[in-house]
Specification:
The complex is a heterodimer of chains A (321) and B (159). Chain A has 321 residues and is mostly helical. Chain A has nine helices and five strands. Chain A has two domains: 221 residues, Cation efflux protein transmembrane domain (Alpha-lytic protease prodomain-like); 70 residues, Alpha-Beta Plaits. The longest helix of chain A is centred in the first third of the chain and has 32 residues. In chain A, 47% of the residues are buried. Chain B has 159 residues and is of the alpha/beta class. Chain B is built from five helices and eight strands. In chain B, strands 1, 4, 5, 6, 7 and 8 form a six-stranded mixed beta sheet that branches. Chain B has a two-stranded antiparallel sheet with strand order 2-3. Classes of the chains: A mainly alpha (321), B alpha/beta (159). At the A-B interface, helix 6 and helix 7 of A face helix 1 and helix 5 of B.
Chain lengths: 321, 159
């Protein structure tokens, strides 16, 4: 039970966290470049300008992650007796709201442009003495932005599972939203070239559906975690397997008759409470409780902060087991 | 939502495959095709020294020269329609006009009604600041817009 900041993470998880931090700095740099490139080719096209604003929203999850990790690194203290892990949940809420805003903005812009019959003007552009239709650089730049978004998104999703990090998972969803929107823009601009003025808005509307859905799922998850909902694996509604493991580990002690476990997600790690009913007539001393607590803390790296509460009757509505 | 991605990708590739066809970009309403070797309907709002209309209905000034030169390049005959700027912009939006000229500047608030071209020249605005002069074409008629802009570039008309 030494330290409750990230000093308490097992070495391979600490390494994964370091990789995640480096990945976020890289993605901030890459996204900065993309934003500049899109801004340069955006021109008068409203669709491209919207894409530009939405790209700015995609910067929020990495920033929230870096701030969250910086905060969560601090150990626990009398002032913060549970540590600072919740910073990650707060960051998840920021990322979820950014994702939902992105999706709703896309839906709104697509629907209103479609309903009012807005016809996007795309003229020509001159680069180094060559004149060509401005749709081409838009399509090329938007296609190129897909590549880093897909790669970074996959890397983040892998780290999200490894670190039990909902914020990284929301960030990966944001990157997915980013590249699907970019593909929709490519299809839309190509359609505009064929005289299909509605193509851009229709394509944006099509992809906005899944982005709004991801945003809502993440928002529910983030709010759930802040309301101390039962811990779940990343992007899932099911109870986390750690809950079962804690229950089984407690029942392995010969002096434990019955157990109820409640686990809340603090962001990366859990805070778990195990209520145990001793076998009747069996004396329980403080050392047995400490031993049980050590045993429970070792079932999973996320269960590092676990308390054991001996009780005669299990509290109601804490554990369904 | 995998099918949405698949659909988007197929849509994109289908369109890209067709890009080798001539006439890209195209006009949703086919304005350039109609005007070529036909009539180009141009709204004009008096704005000396950029464009002026005499009592006899003769249109003159640098913008008239640009329009006449462009019409010649596509073999079109110019049909001039005189009016106030706001009235012409409404007509442009409704598709009754193809182009509007009248000393418009690039920061004019008509982006909801018209596609403004790239600037063809400079002037000094009423506030003493430099303003870029543009022409206006019907929104979404990107073949016409692109064709006219190419003409401006070819003639060396740039801000």
């Amino acid at each position: 039970m030494n330290g409750h900041g990230y000093s308490s993470l097992p070495p391979e998880k600490s390494a994964a966290l370091k990789r995640a931090v480096r990945l976020q700095w890289i993605s901030l740099g890459v996204m900065g470049l993309i934003i500049v490139a899109v801004g340069l080719v955006a021109g008068q096209s409203q669709a491209m300008r919207t894409a530009f604003v939405e790209d700015l929203l995609a910067l929020l999850p990495p920033i929230a992650f870096l701030l969250g990790v910086w905060r969560a690194r601090k150990g626990r203290s009398p002032k913060h007796p549970y540590g600072h892990h919740r910073a990650m949940s707060a960051g998840h809420l920021v990322a979820a709201v950014a994702l939902l805003t992105f999706g709703l903005s896309l839906t709104w812009n697509g629907a209103s442009a479609l309903l009012s019959g807005e016809r996007p003007p795309v003229g020509v552009t001159s680069i180094a003495g060559y004149t060509f239709w401005a749709g081409w650089p838009m399509m090329i730049v938007m296609s190129l932005t897909v590549i880093p978004s897909v790669i970074l998104g996959r890397m983040k999703l892998k780290l999200a599972e490894e670190l039990h990090d909902d914020l990284l998972s929301a960030d990966a969803d944001m990157l997915k939203a980013d590249w699907s929107t970019a593909l929709a823009t490519v299809a839309g601009v190509a359609g505009i070239g064929f005289g299909l003025w509605w193509a851009d808005s229709a394509a944006a509307l099509l992809v906005s559906v899944s982005i709004v859905k991801d945003g809502v799922t993440n928002l529910r998850g983030a709010v759930g975690a802040l309301l101390d909902a039962r811990a779940t694996p990343i992007a899932s509604q099911e109870p986390d397997p750690v809950i079962d493991k804690l229950r089984e580990a407690a029942l392995e002690e010969p002096w434990v008759e019955d157990v109820a476990v409640r686990v809340r997600d603090m962001g990366h790690v859990f805070h778990s409470e195990a209520f145990v009913v001793p076998v009747s007539g069996r004396p329980v001393d403080a050392r047995m409780i400490d031993r049980l607590r050590d045993r429970l803390s070792e079932v999973d790296w996320k269960a590092v902060d676990t308390v054991v509460v001996p009780t005669a009757d299990l509290p109601e509505d804490v554990d369904e087991g | 939502m995998r099918w949405i991605r698949l659909l988007t990708a197929m849509f994109a590739f289908g369109l890209l495959a067709g890009c080798s066809e001539p006439g890209y970009p195209r006009d949703p309403e086919g304005t350039l095709l109609r005007a070529t070797d036909g009539e180009l309907v141009v709204g004009v709002s008096t704005h000396p020294p950029h464009v002026d209309v005499s009592d006899e209905g003769e249109v003159s000034g640098p913008e008239a020269d640009i329009v006449n030169g462009y019409a010649e390049s596509i073999g079109a005959e110019v049909v001039w329609v005189e009016g106030a700027e706001s009235e012409l912009m409404e007509k442009l939006k409704l598709g009754e006009l193809d182009i509007v000229v009248g000393g418009l500047s690039s920061d004019s608030p008509w982006a909801t009604h018209a596609a403004l071209t790239r600037p063809y020249g400079k002037t000094t605005g009423p506030d003493g600041k430099e303003a870029k002069l543009v022409l206006a074409t019907r929104l979404g008629e990107n073949a016409l817009l692109s064709n006219l802009e190419r003409h401006l570039i070819d003639e060396g008309l740039e801000a």
